[in-house]
Amino acid sequence: MSDTTTSLRRKLRSAGDLQAVVRTMKALAGSSIGQYEQSVKALGDYYRTVELGLSACFRENTPAVPMINGPVQAGAGTVGAVVFGSDQGLVGQFNEVVADYAVKTLAALPGKPEVWAVGERVYTRLADAGLPLVGLFSVPDSVQSITPLVGQIQIESEARRAKGEYVRLYIFHNRPRPGAQYEPVGQSLLPLDLPWQRGLSEVPWPTKRLPEVLGGGTVALRALIREYLFISLFRACAESLASENGSRLAAMERADKNIDELLATLHGTFHRIRQAGIDEELFDVISGFEALVK
Asked: Does pTM surpass 0.90?
């Protein structure tokens, strides 16, 4: 009986320590979700400004200048893609979901894909699927680390685009949904298609005075397109990180619940065995006393 109660005490102590770690990770995941969601919201006003600037440029450049679109021939050329995943575990099927979605989407597109992976785990998943990988980036660990990552992606993608290696660029990531859920989404960044440009050119101007593009329409347009690409990549990365931490939070909540159930079972077993031992000792005392009396 002594060995059984001792082992149960050890299990109870280990489960309690594990629960403390799980609850700490829950708190970290919860705080991380907040900062990434706030960064996405903060991009809203800035994107609105860039959108108005693009609208003004497209009003003056109709039809759009060729450098925005680039020649796209069906069945030819290379398709660039950036897939955002995770470097850490405890996220369930996070990397599998976004990787499978990217593989399925790219398979339906004409041309040969070239993929940059953000995160070692999604990199491995994409490699196993047979996609040609041209780069690996580390997942940012804070909002401040997103900007350098986006800069690296822009530099590498623009260098390949300048060489004429591809004219199309897509991004894939997980987007948060209510209830710590997420869904894989994709976005075509380049080329900027004509319907999108026409839609922006028709955006109502917020004042009665019509805008005027200074410094040359092409120069301003190039700068605004770079900002648009930066915002799109930044938002995709922030949403991916928010989804990752949401998935980890859900996993930690399930683990916390399971540990609570385990602790309840261990406590019940421990008290039952302890009470059985006490009863056995009492019966021995009573039996001895009766034997002495007789």
From this structure: no
